[in-house]
Each structure stands twice: as structure tokens, then as C-alpha cells.
Amino acid sequence: METIWGKRLIRFAAIFGLIGAFLGSHMAGAGSLAFRPVHAHILVVGWLSLFAWGVYYKAFRIQASSLVAAQALTGIIGAAGLSIGLWLQYLQPFGDSKAIILPIYIGGGTILLISFLLFVIVTFVSKEQKA
Known about the structure:
- By secondary structure, this protein is mainly alpha-helical.
- Helices cover 82% and strands 5% of the residues.
- The longest helix is centred in the N-terminal third of the chain and has 29 residues, at 2-30.
């Protein structure tokens, strides 16, 4: 089960990486740094964190596979929610509707924080795989 989630996390990381790189390219071409916070968070929590977790699940055997599923899902949902929330907050493409923006922004960040907490727990219940 861990290797399935490892592969899924790496695939989602690749998607986040592509979006983050595209935003960076867009900012360079447009000469505007408007997407800077979104670009940075997509690459750090979307690409880097999800990729690192995916590699970890490929390298280690985990005792509680349901914990791995919960951690991976909250990581994917949290990274997406935080990134979308940042986009809505900083660029306000649909206006300044705090009633919509803040729950997505804060909710995504909170879900991501839960994912990091679950990952800490996972690291204490993992064993090294034998080659």
C-alpha cells in the first residue's frame, strides 16, 4: 500500500511542479511578480513536500497503511487548498469575497498542517526495507 501512495504522491508532485514552473515562466515573461507567493507555495508544499513523502514511502515499510493513506490524502488536498487559497487571496480573480477565500485558504493550510503532523507519526512507525 505504501508504494501505491508513494507513486501517487510523486505523480501529484509532478503536476504541482509543472504548474509551479509554468507560473514562474509566466511571471518572467510578463515581467510581473503577482504570482510569487502562489508560485513559491506550489513548488514547496506541492512539488517538494509531496515528492519527498512519495520517496519516503518507496524507501520505508510502514506499519499502519491507513495512516499512510490519511497522510497522503491530506497532503494532496492541503497543498491544493493552500495554493488555490493563496491565488484567491493575493490575486482576487473573483473579487474580494472573504467568505469564500478564507475558508479555502485557512482550510487548505490547516489540512496541510495535519498532513505534516501525520507524517511525523508515520516516521516513528516505519521500518527500513531490506534490499
